[in-house]
Structures are given as C-alpha cells and as structure tokens.
Amino acid sequence: MKRYDFLISYDIADPKRLRKIAKHIERKALRIQYSVYVLYDATKEELARLLEEILKIANEEQDDIRVYKISHYGIKMGSAVDLQNPYDFF
Q: Could you list the residue range(s) of the whole structural domain that residue 40 is in?
C-alpha cells in the first residue's frame, strides 16, 4: 500500500469550528505553523478519513481547507472540498 506525505492548511472563519478542526488534524498530523500541518506517511484511505471528519465540521461557504500532496517531484494542490473523492487526488 502506497504512503504519501501531505501538507494540510486551513482558514476557518469561526473560532469554535477552528478549534474542533485543529483537534481532529492534530490527532494525525504534526503542526508546523498556526494553521499548517504535515501528515506523514499516510495512505489515501487515512487521508480520506481525516478529510471526512473535518469536512463534517467545516462550513463550505466560509472556510477554506487545502491539501497538498508532497512528493520528490513537487507538490500537487487541491481544495479539501474538491477532494471529497480523495482518489481523484492521486
């Protein structure tokens, strides 16, 4: 099973939602800045589960969650909302 590294960042409008989303991400990923995390060595299924959890909390119209796949070839970018089917990301 292939594993990847991902950069996850967000801009959450509501402080209460921000805290909930941050707690979900911090369970799986390492915070490297205030709203930026690295999810190391994860499968696409693990990323899908994490996105599913945080998208239930996020407000699609007010919040912005981004996921960047990190590889030795560069970074592939996409919005978490666009990644509701994370298999399109690979």
A: 4-89
8 pairs with which residues across the strands?
37, 67
- Cβ atoms of residues 89 and 44 within 8 Å: yes
47-75: pLDDT as tens digits: 999 999 999 999 999 999 999 888 766 55
- Output the domain CATH number for residue 34: 3.30.70.240
Strand order across the beta sheet in which 30-33 lies: 30-33, 36-42, 4-11, 64-71, 74-79
Of the candidates 64, 57, 49, which has an alpha carbon nearest to the alpha carbon of residue 20? 57
d(CA 45, CA 59): 23
Instruction: Give the pairing type, strands 36-42 and 64-71.
Output: unpaired
Does the pTM surpass 0.90? The reply is no
* Number of domains comprising the chain: 1
Cα 75 to Cα 6, 16, 44, 53, distances in angstroms: 9, 30, 16, 23
